[in-house]
Amino acid sequence: MDPTALTQNLLSPPILFFGLGMLATVVRSDLSVPPAVAKGLSIYLLVSIGFHGGYELHRSGLDLGVVGTLGVAALSSAVLPVLGFFVLRTRLKGQDAAGIAACYGSVSAVTFITAISFLERGQTEYSGHLIAAMALMESPAIVTGIVLATLVRTADTSDDNQRPEWRAMAHEALANSAIVLLLGSLVIGYVCGDSGWATMKPLVKDPFQAVLCLFLLDMGLVAARRLGDLRRSGVFLVSFALIAPPVQASLGILAAAALGLSQGDALLLAVLFGSASYIAAPAALRLALPNANPSLYVPMSLGLTFPFNIIVGIPLYATIIQWWWT
Hints:
Shape: globular
Strand content: under 5%
Helix content: over 70%
Largest sheet: none
Distance between the termini: 15 Å
Number of helices: 15
Order of helices and strands: HHHHHHHHHHHHHHH
């Protein structure tokens, strides 16, 4: 790994604010971010990245290369949980394995945003349609996790009362607020084009980094509070949370090479493959898989995989891609 890239990433404002949030919790400071403010920051980030992606998609246009990338992204989100499920099932119950696998097949918007910030600091270009890929990868993993859990449950019981409410689960997976915001903003940005971007740029582009810092401050506070849960998760789950991201990101790099993507696009696809959801997927899983233990999949994705990716993973993947592509 390039030490310069790692140092620059560690000393970037978003990462330092994430560390400040963790430090505040460790020293038992009374620092907190009101839930309403945290929700507002999330909405801003999702709208900003969705609108920007729609505009970039409008500017670049839809061609076979773009459609192929979007198809690979959506397909990977459906397949990655299956791979993770079989590994997790060796040590966990079916519901817990399916819940964790769904989180690791879905994506982290904040990790993706941090990767964009990493590329912009290095003045590396990327394509807007990767933002559309992120939006497409939210739901398939959740649906796959539900299917896997249902198959296990059906095999274990014949009780009709235990059968899933498919309509409610499908609604939660597809109408989740994060997915609606991302896809909706993406479509609006695409439809509005250049004139809409000129109007919205002062809102969705210029304050982006500052809002990201505030959001990661809150994420640091939350992640540090979950450290106690991680100690109870055991070595197996801690190892999975740290090994799965680079393994899945490696698959993303292979896919990017096969698709002929640029270095910037390859890094974003690798981050999408290697990140784990701690917002959209857990929200859907609470309804879809009520027997899956959230104290397992939330601390793993938020407390270990998220900081691993933003501190070590992104510069590591960038170094591998730079070496391979040049």
